[in-house]
Amino acid sequence: MDIMDVRTYMHAVGREARSASRWVARSDTATRDRALAATAAAIRRDAQLLLAANARDVEAARAAGLEAAMVDRLTLTPKAVDAMAEGLVQIAALPDPVGEISDLSFRPTGIQVGRMRVPLGVIGIIYEARPNVTADAAGLCLKSGNAAILRGGSEAIHSNQAIAACVKEGLRAAGLPETAIQVVEITDRAAVGELVTMQAFVDVIVPRGGKGLIERISAEACVPVIKHLNGVCHVYIDAGADPGKAIRVADNAKTQRYGTCNTMETLLVHEAVAREILPPLCRIYLGKGVELRGDAAARAIVAQMGEATEEDWHAEYLAPILSVRVVSGLDQAIEHIAAYGSQHTDAIVTEDYGRARRFLREVDSSSVMVNASTRFADGFEYGLGAEIGISTDKLHARGPVGLEGLTSQKFIVLGDGHVRT
What we know:
Elements: H1 3-26, H2 29-45, H3 47-63, H4 68-74, H5 78-93, E1 101-106, E2 112-119, E3 122-127, H6 132-143, E4 147-151, H7 157-173, E5 181-183, H8 190-195, E6 204-208, H9 211-220, E7 233-237, H10 243-255, E8 264-270, H11 274-287, E9 291-294, H12 296-301, E10 306-307, H13 310-314, E11 321-327, H14 330-340, E12 345-349, H15 353-362, E13 367-370, E14 390-391, E15 399-400, E16 407-414
Parallel strand pairs: 3-4, 3-6, 4-5, 7-8, 7-12, 8-11, 9-10, 9-11, 12-13
Antiparallel strand pairs: 1-2, 2-16, 14-15
Helix pairs in contact: 2-5, 2-7, 3-7, 5-6, 6-7, 10-11
């Protein structure tokens, strides 16, 4: 498509989204919840249609030679389709943040000052592969009183369109404009460039995808971006760890799913328990086909382990590869995470309360865990219903971004003819 045609199309989408955002912002909770419930029902009813559309995308992706991690993220299963619908039901059941007033107090002048939670407006979401993002994003944006422009990857176009049809049905059922949630119909990459620069129509951009996509969005965007760049997640097994818990958590954090941003990429083990923990744990990894790369101390314990390089400590593999390092204690573990981590998700396994508290306090990541797998760093698991993405930024939203992260606050002042003297 010609660049002028792309610009004309995207600006038309933007104008419609801006207009629809005002309708959504002033709609009541019951109306938005009806739209979510109707969308969930449509997804469950049309599950086979969604799976058939997804099968077309997966077949094309494999034929095009897309990497295994991308195909994994693209693939829908009956369980995943049901989870999309259940996520919408859970979002509908959550308290509505819009209009919530907090911190209301009298000032010496007699006025009352507080804060009201309000929608951000129009949210542009750019994502690769994961078609479930279409439903998750639609639900979260709608519940939080926002309109959304969704631009999925070309590899998931049939899946996204099928899900979008269910969303439009839900909006119609609730009497809301269909343009409140729009899926960009063109696959031209120029559409992304337009979306991230449409300051008149878009209030915030949320990119979900690979490092290349997020770097591009961060560089080109003229509107605020909620993002995370890498998911270099760690599990540290402390000297005070229960061995059974340590093996269970470290196994799950790596092998439950390889292609996700909350999968462990580096395992840190205290030298006092390394000879007890590493042999049985690494047998599990090797049995599941995980390639192990370790430092000298780890390789001395597990002979099948390859040598880890400096690049390995920085790596987000998104694959069955794991870096392993033996550390002298909590201080060195925290130093390693500070040097190589991406401030996404890091966990400690320990029965020592003091060291657990230190880890929680000193590890500067958006999610920090004790005795739990990093795979729990997810909006659904956190009770958010779903998530729009994960933010490792420190301003506005951090960690899994749910309803509250898609709203802002404004000051409100209540008076009774008060004037300033």
